[in-house]
Amino acid sequence: MIHLLFIVIIGFIVIMQTSIPYLLKRTIAFGVSIPEGHTDDPSIASYKKIYAIVSSIVGIAGLIAYVSWMSGRSLSGEKVVLAGLFIQFSILFVSMALYLYFHAKVIQLKRAKQWGANLKQVRIVDLEARAKDEMLPSYLYIIPMLITIGLMIYTGTQYHLMPERIPTHWGPNGQPDAFTEKTPFSVIATLLIALIIQAMMLMINVFTKKSGIRIRATKRQTSQIQQLSFRKYTSWFLFLTTVLITTLFGFLQVTTIHAELENAMLMMAAPLVFLVIILLATAAYAFKVGQSGSRIEVQVEDDAITGITDFDDDRFWKFGVFYMNKNDPSIFVEKRFGIGWTINFGNPIGYLILFVPILLILAISFLV
To answer: Are 243 and 314 within 8 A, CB to CB?
Structure first.
């Protein structure tokens, strides 16, 4: 089962890395903004094709190597996990190296051909667009938190019935493989981690909702509809992830309290089902929505506008990946390579939302 788990993950990574160049906005190529009229440049098309082909070859080769290495061998779970992680990170490393190479090539191409040099840069602000925003209300994210708090209270009432050794980690087969002594803190440590993750998801939704709605200068109506749809689907995807995390952590907590409910098949199936749903939801989100909603079909024709282009903010994107703009009030901004959002590293609030929860989770893991 562990083998199958890593084969599924590696296969998913290969598909996503191969598809990424074609899921992005036409006006963004390898983290570089491309003015209208130059998005179909044959050099850019060639770069995307090479990236996809090389990523697929490397990924498929890695997958075949992993399967071949396991065939006919009796390997420990630890070796299987290490090999699977090595293949995953190798594929991602090659993809990132390819991205950086083509990022530099596109920058050189843009400068050499002086794309946008004769166009007026325009930043569009639509004050009415936010009123049409259909992102889920943030109070919905409080419901999973209340469920977790309720489980904490229930755990307290069952404390005297719980085993003296509390599981703190579960292996790929769903079975606990690390334990700690029972204390009032250790019995709710897993739920505390879940609560921190839920709080982080809540804050991400809150500040994503407040982020700027980026409307293209030459396709205002189309980009507004796509942007609003993108934000809506992002909100649903984030909430689904929160619900799945709550379900998985709640399941692990209940089986810890009531050991008689443990079933080897069920314990193994639970994380696998969680993973499969997350991967399918991620793929559906990426291929349905695309970057900034670019894959959402819109039955609207924009008026032809010439002589202008979107505001070029390439200088705020380091390597086309890290956004640093202290003058931008948005905490979260849309990724330039990949699907979804990233933080504005020029705003310290973003660090608090992402890194404080990580530090708290590490602290809880260390204390138990």
So the answer is: no
**Which among 67, 98, 117 is the end of a domain?**
117
* pTM metric for this prediction: 0.87
Environment class of 110 (CB within 10 Å of its CB; exposed 0-12, middle 13-18, buried 19+): buried
Does residue 247 sit in the same domain as residue 331?
yes
What span, in angstroms and rounded, lies between the C-alpha atoms of 72 and 254?
38
Give the residue from 141, 136, 274 showing the smallest Cα distance to 201: 141
Tell me the torsion sign for CA atoms 277, 366, 199, 209: negative
pLDDT one-digit tens code per residue, 180-208: 888 899 899 999 999 999 999 999 999 88
Torsion, Cα 87 89 92 94, to 10 degrees, reads -70
Give the integer Cα–Cα distance in Å for 1 and 343: 36
**Judgement on whether residues 94 and 239 belong to the same structural domain of the protein:** no
Domain that holds residue 217: 119-368
Does residue 123 share a domain with residue 102? no
**Number of Cβ within a 10 Å radius of residue 181:** 9
Same domain, 151 and 246: yes
CB 349 within 8 A of CB 360: no
Mean pLDDT for the stretch of residues 339-359? 88
**Beta carbons within 8 Å of 209's beta carbon, 6+ residues apart:** 133, 135, 138, 231, 235
* Total number of domains constituting the chain: 2
Q: Is 34 exposed, middle or buried (0-12, 13-18, 19+ CB in 10 A)?
A: buried
Does 113 lie in the same domain as 131?
A: no
DSSP character at residue 338:
S
One domain, residues 288 and 350: yes
Give 33's strand partners: 28
pLDDT of amino acid 264: 67
User: Tens digits of per-residue pLDDT, 83-128?
Assistant: 888 899 999 999 999 999 999 999 999 999 888 777 787 777 666 7
Please check whether residues 90 and 126 belong to one and the same domain. no
Residues 136 and 11 in one domain: no
Q: Among 65, 92, 117, where does a domain finish?
A: 117
